Amino acid sequence: MPGALGDAIRIFDLFMIGYFAVLAVIYTALAFVGWRSVEDYVARRPMRDYNWVGRSPLSLPVSILAPAYNEGPVIVPAMRALMASQFVNFEVIVINDGSKDDTLHQLKDGFGLVPASRVPRANLVTKAVRGLWMSPTEPRIVVIDKENGGKADALNVGLRYARNPLVCAIDADTILDPGALSRLVWEFQSSPDTIATGGIVRIVNGSTVVDGRVIEVKTPTSILANIQILEYLRAFLGARVGWSRLRMLMIISGAFGLFRRDAVIEAGGWDTSTVGEDAELVLRLHRTRLEQGKPCRITFFPDPICWTEAPGDLRTLIRQRDRWQRGLIEMLGRHRRMIGNPRYGRLGMIALPYFVIFELFGPVIEVFGYAALLLSIVFGLASPQVIALMFALAVSYGFVLSFLAILMEQRAFRRYPGWRCLGRLVAAAVVENVAYRQVMTIVRARSWWTYRRSAGSWGEMTRAGFGAAPIPATVPSTDGVLLGD
Amino acid sequence: MHLTVTSYVLANTAATAGLVVMVAVRKVRRDRRERRHGSNQDHLRAALLSGGDDLDRLFRRAVGRAAYQADLAVVLPRVSSTDPDWIIGRARVHAERTGLARRLRRRLQSRRPAVRGTAAALIGHLRLKDGPALVGPLLRDRDGDVRLAAAGALARFGTGEAASALIEALAAGGMPEERIIERLGHQWATPTILTSLQATGAEAMRLRAPLARALGLAKDGRAEPTLLALLAHGDIEQRVCAARALATCGSDHSRLALQHCLADDSWEVRAQAASSLACLGAVEAVPDLAANLTHRAWWVRANAANALARLGTPGITALEDAAAGDDPYASERASETLALVPPAQRGVA
Question: What is the DSSP track for B122-176?
Fold first, then answer.
């Protein structure tokens, strides 16, 4: 073993120890702030009258934008479930993004649509609109058919035709809790500076869904889906709540976010040339407002719930995570001028550098760390005790974060009330450290390569659909992204 | 070395087991708390409805515990929907007797916003005698949630004093206007609002539009003369708000005034007048509404067409005529509106 290489490996090992120590401190701080936020939220619940916001004719009306691409089997029940929202002052704009299946026919049959017209209210460049339909029986639904242009383009079309001051971007196949909109709108009504707010996204796999409503919440039997549930809990209740509290929230999930329409139009709408259009928009909103010197409050609300189906097999999951990471690369690349720039305040000086170091390059650094560890073992550069200790520390810390997320969920929301559900989540917290985390780290590191090859590609998502029966369990496997998303 | 690796594994296992136990304990405690709250709410509900002596015991329990106060805040509005005065009155007597009222008054001074807000909400539910004077200052609280809770509490008192405090908050501008307007939108607030609308000066002028909106929500016929005056002499925003409000409380006088507005210079007033006439069922306005189908402003055409669709057979007939007519704008609007008329309504027509 040459001395220079040995020294290099030793130095890299020390760097990795420092890197993980800093990361652990950041995660702990975020978890602590998140915990305090959730506690505050729970304490405030008795004095907040969300039902009033839902019923009041003066509540800010919402246009729900639901882009649909090949959603034929689920689109009508999903839209009917949206109509059952407790919030009364809204319209749903379904944008059929040139689906190849019978999405448009399903909508026409389901709602008895007739051709209609509407004046666009924003000047955004989008793919051509083929037609607009409305329903005589359900006046709150508007269907727009357009040429295929991707989710961001579909959202921009919806934005052009939206009439209400708030727009809610959702995925057409997601399920909103009946009270979810009222709670998000509350955030806008209590603070006029709010321009965007996001709600928690939870995984519906395993739960019973009837007529587009989640009737009974249960965790699935699939270990892969349980690990994703845990990941979502960690990411939303830990990281996002924490970032939101620190006024540095950079991501609002594309599955469920509420925006001030004028602010989105002013920022130029959703970016059609990135796969991470949701996070990119939030960062652009920050940037636009900060450059204009306008107030910019972007928040995360831990309670309004949107249910979504998680990938049931490893292949789909890998494609999804690859897409998320590519989205992050594009977003940070595009807004690199903001990184470390004091003009953008704490966002430029704290949040963006964190994302670059720990989320963008983190997976690559971790993969090199694993390689260095292996080389250290092979060349006898580190004692097995030290390696075992490092591994044990990393695994224990992962446990602590996962258990903290479960405790927070139990404290504040208790959506998984049964012992069996809790047992599965605890088991997932243990199992995910074994291989899942490492596999996902490699997938995210690999995204640097796939980013150059397939920019703009979404990949296919295989859906089981929401039926009367629980979504079936699928391939057992395991995860890796800590507090990411 | 063997011992060291074993100790690592043991330590890790122990840590994991500890965390699992912590989660289990948390779940057990949470389940127990949920059950306790459920049972407490059931007892409160039964005691409030029956008026039994149990109420004293339950209220005393709530004196020192915020969680029980929250239970009371949940139960009170639910049970009082049947016979509010009787139930609230009795609850108030028990709250004063047991010291709960005194405790709530003290909690309004708490440093924690959630405590202040919840106390304000509960004082509103119980309608304590000095409530408006106690809760009113919280409309200027530094915490937004507390301000909203205070507005909600004041509205529950339903007195002129509460209405005055809310109007002052509207003028101060510390809260989104809609949150105050919706609380003022009840008949108990009408006299105070009408008095405020008589005031002159720049600030009073600024309040006219939101107060007109509140009158619209109140659906109170007493407001009609004032709203008609505002419709005739206000600025465009005030006139639009007055026209909208008249849709809920207007009589024949309003129908006539709104019909005149269909020839107004302002397209905003015309569009709102069309919608309001439909709400009032003003069939006599059908010809004027049909004439507005050719207006240059899309919103006027759209509102006129929608109003015609809501006015039954004469309106539908006017739309059918417009759809077959020469004016392309009127024809397009009328055709689309007709297509969107529900089949049952078309059948009636």
Answer: HHHHHT-TTHHHHHGGGGG-SSHHHHHHHHHHHHHH-SHHHHHHHHHHHHHT-S-
Instruction: Find the domain containing B286 and state its range.
Output: 251-349
Q: How many domains is chain A built from?
A: 1
Mean residue pLDDT of chain A comes to 85
DSSP A334: H
Domain assignment present for residue B209? The answer is yes
Put simply, whether B26 touches A (Cβ < 8 Å) is yes
Residue A63 within a domain: no
C-beta atoms of A58 and B182 within 8 A? yes
* Residue with more model confidence, A419 or B10: A419
Q: Which of B195, B229, B250 is the last residue of a domain?
A: B250
CB A90 within 8 A of CB A62: yes
Domain assignment of residue A141, yes or no: no
Q: What is the mean pLDDT of residues A310-325?
A: 91
Running along chain B, 349 residues long, what does each successive block of 10 average in pLDDT? 66 81 86 88 86 80 83 82 76 88 92 91 90 91 91 91 93 87 94 90 87 94 94 93 93 92 95 96 94 94 95 93 92 90 64
The reported pLDDT for the residue numbered A119 is 80
- A334 in Cβ contact with A286 (< 8 Å): no
Residue in B closest to A390 by C-alpha:
B8
* Highest averaged pLDDT of the listed ranges A209-213, A222-226, B55-59: A222-226
CB of A396 within 8 Å of a chain B CB? The answer is: yes
B260 belongs to a structural domain: yes
The pLDDT assigned to B49 comes to 82
The rounded distance, in Å, linking the Cα atoms of A92 and B167 is: 35
Q: Which of A300, A197, A291, A294 is nearest to A246 (CA)?
A: A300
| pLDDT reported for residue A1 | 54
CA distance A346 to A334: 19
Residue of chain A nearest B3, judged by CA positions: A385
In Å, how far is B195's CA from the nearest CA of chain A? 23
Residue B214 vs residue A3, higher pLDDT: B214
CATH number for position B233: 1.25.10
Domain that includes residue A200, residue range = 1-47+191-460+467-485
Q: Are residues B225 and B273 in the same domain?
A: no
Interface of B with A in 277-306 (CB under 8 A): 298
Q: Facing residues of A208 across strands?
A: A216
CATH no. for residue B260?
1.25.10.10
Distance from CA of B200 to the nearest CA of A (A): 26
Q: Taking 50 as the threshold, does the pLDDT of residue A451 lie above it?
A: yes
Instruction: Say whether both B240 and B332 belong to one domain.
Output: no
Q: What distance lies between CA B175 and its chain's CA centroid? A: 14
Q: For an interface test with A, which of B5, B20, B345 has the most A Cβ atoms less than 10 Å from its Cβ?
A: B20
Q: Residue A182: enclosing H or E segment and its boundaries?
A: helix A180-190
Query: Which among B21, B143, B182 is the top mutation candidate for probing chain A, defined by the most A β-carbons within 10 Å of its own β-carbon?
Result: B182
Question: How many domains would you assign to chain B?
Answer: 2
- Residues with Cβ within 8 Å of B6's Cβ and at least 6 positions away in sequence, in order, are none
Same domain, B288 and B203: no
Q: Give the per-residue pLDDT at A211.
A: 77
Cα distance between residue B193 and residue B170, in whole Å: 12
Boundary-marking domain end, from B250, B280, B305: B250
**B23 and A400 in contact by Cβ < 8 A?**
no
Contact check, Cβ <8 Å, B5/A385: yes
Residue A104 located in a structural domain? no
Neighbours of A371 (CB within 10 A): 12
How far apart CA A202 and CA A303 sit, in angstroms, is 10
Written as one letter, the residue type at B333 is: R
Confidence category of residue A480, pLDDT binned at 50, 70, 90: very low
Is the residue at A84 inside a domain? no
